[in-house]
Structures are given as structure tokens and as C-alpha cells.
Predict the structure.
Amino acid sequence: MSAVIPKPNSLAAQLRRRLLRKPEHYRLTPSGPGPILDVGCGNAKYPGAVGLDISADTQADVVADLNEYPYPFEDGAFSQILCQDVIEHVREPLRFIAELHRVAAPGARIHLRTPHFSSVLAYGDVTHEHIFSALAIRTFEKSLFSHYLAVGLRVVDLRLDFWDPLRWIGVAALANRFQGPYESLFAFRFPAMNIRAELEVLK
């Protein structure tokens, strides 16, 4: 008797997809139409985007040092900006955000992903200049002091990603519902993986 092979859309397959998330689940994607800038694109540039990277040995369309300003783009050139695992590498995060704001059109969306401060990913790369909390990302919307960051941004979405076992036991849901208490009291007991944020550009 031949073995029964489950159909791709079977309950078991759906359950596996829900329980075991692939890395692609956490990748940044545009949330709307318009020109896309993929900052620090590496060799995984988003299809149709303009790729910006420090290395010519990548899929970058424009090669530039992200620590040197301004970037070689006109004001308001992009409607969607993807910054996946980039902001932790730049020397001056606030200046970096201000430069992204400059090249973004009014109402554009800036998408950020960076390792959470409790994540092994934050400490696993010696080229990281900074580590971040959800609270730190929220200061891009309302800076502690106006002279730190004088551009208009609004946090549209900010979530913490977790490895599968911590999702299964409900830590991810609770941590995202109560981000402040989680980061203050429980982050190193139940480490997060990444922070993902979407910021609206106000001009």
C-alpha cells in the first residue's frame, strides 16, 4: 500500500506554516505604490527598487557610504524606503533618519528592521554600532529633545518579532501588547528577535 501524501493545503500543511515561520515572513516589503529605495540592499534587493549599498559587490544601483551625507538622490524622490538590518550599522542613527526623511516624498513610508536589544542578533555582528529598543524607535516620532531630530514622522506600526518557541507559548502576543513592561522587566528572560517598524513621513 502506497503512503498517503498530504495535499499542500491540508490541515497539517497549514499548521506547519503557522507554527514554523520562514525567514521570508520577517522581510520588509513596501506597504503602498510608488518608487522604492532599498537602503543597504546587499544581494537581496527588493524587486523593482533602487538599491543603495556601500559595496559594489552587491545588487546596488547606487554605491555610497551611508555615513556620508547627503545621499545622491533628489529631495522627495521615494514613496517607500526599506531599511532592513541597516540602522544598527550607521554611526549617527538620527542623522540617518533625517536623510531618509529628506529623500522621502510627503506621506512616504520608511520601513525599518533591526535586532532587538535582547536578541543574540544584536551582539552577533561586530560591525554593529548601536542596539535598539522599541522605545528608542518611537523617539523618531517624538524625540526627547527637538534638536535631536527636527523632522516629522509618525509611527504607523511597530512590532517585536520572536523565534517560534516563544510565539507558541504566547510570549510574542503579550510582549507586543505590553511593549513597555516587556522591555523593562522581561526582555532578557524571553528574548525578542527583531524590531520591525513602519514610519510615515510628515512634511
